[in-house]
Amino acid sequence: MRGPALFTAAKPIETAQETPHGGLLDRLQRHLLRLPTAPVAAHTQAAFEALQRTLGPSPGALIFDSGCGTGESTRNLAERHPEAWVVGVDKSADRLGRYRAALPANARLLRAELGDFWRCAMAAGWRLKAHYLPYPNPWPKARHYKRRWPAHPAFPWLLGLGGDLEVRSNWRLYLEEWQVVLEDLGVGSTLTPVPAGSAPPLSPFEAKYLASGHACYALRAALGSGGIPAPSWSAYQARCEAPEVFSRPALTAILAALPTAHPQRETLAEALAASPLRKPADHRGGQASDFFPCDLGPEGREALIQALEQGGEGGDDPALTLALRALRSR
């Protein structure tokens, strides 16, 4: 006689999307052109610094279990890889709080925002032996595709950490989107079924999906020694030609010609102080070829043109000439 079910059967993925989303590669290039600059969440920074004190400055073989949920997958991975530190990370204190069993000595669990955590690890110079993402939220509604990891602003940090990547899901199309993005970067991958009953499930989600009759899949790719890929030439050129993007000489000229008390001066100065767009790998230009996003809008550009024309003493000022030309060409 069968015993009582330990969980409610999982519902199948419901989505109207039938092919990889057409906006993925545009999102990828946008994020490669401009890495996130917002401050790292305080609790994530604190968690990472505590982990650094535990593992030391050079932790050796290192495996991330990103989105580890209750930590069961972290325990399983630590038992499979006794030679490595295995770090399980999840944003939910509630999920992490459900883990009651003793962890292997080579495992750690911590609460952090994944994108920020990857960024901290990159900044510390860490590189991974392997990186597991067991059943991340695939956001199956097409309008939510920007929330999926391959279209997320933090995706470059994941790529930069390197290592052997493994992502599991019960929605094959989601993993096919990973393949599309990785292929665009020249990274090969495999996508294979996770056979039911051939090995203990990696995580509680995997156990639930398999017991519910779902097909589960694993995507694997070798990210090597890591490093954030450079943007493509086509994406770089298109972005530099956008009306809200200005070259370093243009922004410098506008600020030089603009009256000191002008209300848009601070916006322009902040744009120039930020990091410029990242350049293609074989770009040979120096600082003079830097470009910066600065979205003034049509009304803002017109207001600047009027201010420069009214404040200028004539057409002999090179800075004024360059500033007006840059604004009128956008």
> Main beta sheet, described?
7 strands, mixed
Helix/strand/pairing class, anyone? alpha/beta
Order of helices and strands: HHEHEHEHEHEHEHEHEHHEHH
Q: Assign an overall shape.
A: elongated
Described by its quaternary structure, the protein is single chain
Low-pLDDT runs of 5+ residues are 1-5
At CATH's second level, what is the architecture of the largest domain? Answer: 3-Layer(aba) Sandwich
The proportion of strand residues reads 5-15%
- Termini separation (Å)? 74 Å
Characterization of this structure:
The protein has helices spanning about 25-35, 40-55, 70-80, 95, 115-125, 155-160, 170-185, 205-210, 235-240, 250-255, 265-275, 295-310, 320-330, and strands at about 60-65, 85-90, 105-110, 130-135, 165-170, 190-195, 215-220, 245, 290-295. It has about 325 residues and is of the alpha/beta class. It is about 40% helix and about 15% strand. Helix 3 (about 70-80) links the parallel strand 1 (about 60-65) and strand 2.
Q: Keywords for this structure?
A:
about 325 residues; alpha/beta; Rossmann fold; 7-stranded mixed sheet; two-stranded antiparallel sheet; 13 helices; 9 strands; elongated; disordered N terminus
